[in-house]
Amino acid sequence: MSGGVDSSAAAAILKEQGHELVGFTMQLWDQRRGINKDENGDPLPSRCCSLDDVYDARRVAEELGFPFYVLNLEKDFERDVVQPFVSSYLSGETPIPCVACNSRLKFASLDRLAESLGCDKVATGHYARVEFDEAANRYRLFRGRNPEKDQSYFLWELTQDQLSRAMFPLGVMSKAQVRDVARDHSMAVAEKAESQEICFVPDGNYAGFIDRYLAATDSEERLPGDGEIVDTGGEVIGKHGGIHRYTVGQRRGIGISSSKPLYVVSIDAARNRVIVGGDDELAGKSFTAAGVNWVALDAPVDAVRADVRIRYRHTAASSTIAPLPNNRVQVTFDEPQRAITPGQATVFYRGDEVVGGGWIVK
Question: Could you confirm whether 199 is annotated as catalytic?
């Protein structure tokens, strides 16, 4: 229970269905560390584990009449989510921490709690659907019915064991319907605004967060420092202040005057270089993905066809997925796609079903 409208409405729906509930809020990030400050040293508004969110979640549990606990996972969150996020940016990638947070932290921790408490299921406010296929003896993961709110992209790492306990009461609903549920139960969170950024970077300034995080911790990671901006022919055309300030497809903030728009085409972390070019140079037809998790089928021996997304807002495109050793695949699109970005998650679909997913490495 995050203290937001989605998890609160999910709890109300399950309570109405007659389920016996136990609520948990995960304390993930210690705001008192002072890492999230603006240029004046004032705390940034937080949408991650704030006292207000915990209060809202507890109040919903009290109103619906079930026990509520706060689970402190700050150390796990920093180890499994924040530190990999920082390392990924410093390696020239553009990470998406919400996937790892869901599968490796939230569901893993809640599954252990559910088992210890004798609970059968773990329910969340995600907009996705899970169904059991008796013929295949397999749990299947599907997009949420509302395409604008579908969150299946963030859940592709869930294992069959985790899916067997997962419940997504909002998977068939729209956001408007969810707010109506909250209003029907007179919940104070019914009109609560949504967070649009990574929860521990409330201002969306990822580079600024990394700068402050490394300055405030004893991490062995070091900022890469200034380096060269080059064109795709290798000619030096400018300087940058750190590769963690750039991402593939970026246009604004490059800081170079040109007769045509320039975009970040790739990042060479080994040489501390940012490579820029025209929009046409962003197109790519293939990439390698690692850490692949197959959801709809066992790991295939032969190539499979699927529609592939390369970021959350990307429209899935027809592709051939060829298995490689060491839990990797080669994805080849039928048509070139724009800004294939290392560090992002890629998810494979057939219609509304999640076939699997992985991490883009090159």
Answer: yes
- Exactly one of 48, 49, 98, 199 is catalytic; which is it? 199
Q: In the chain, which residues have pLDDT < 50? A: none
CATH topology of domain 5-191: Rossmann fold (3.40.50)
Q: 49, 98, 101, 119: which one is catalytic?
A: 101
pLDDT of residue 83: 94
Q: Where are the domains of the chain?
A: 5-191, 224-277, 283-360
Q: Is 48 a catalytic residue?
A: no
* Fold of domain 283-360: Elongation Factor Tu (Ef-tu); domain 3 (2.40.30)
pLDDT at 350: 98
Query: What pLDDT is attached to residue 222?
Result: 84
Tokens of residue 26, six digits: 């995960």
pLDDT in tens, 253-290: 898 888 899 999 999 999 999 999 999 999 999 999 99
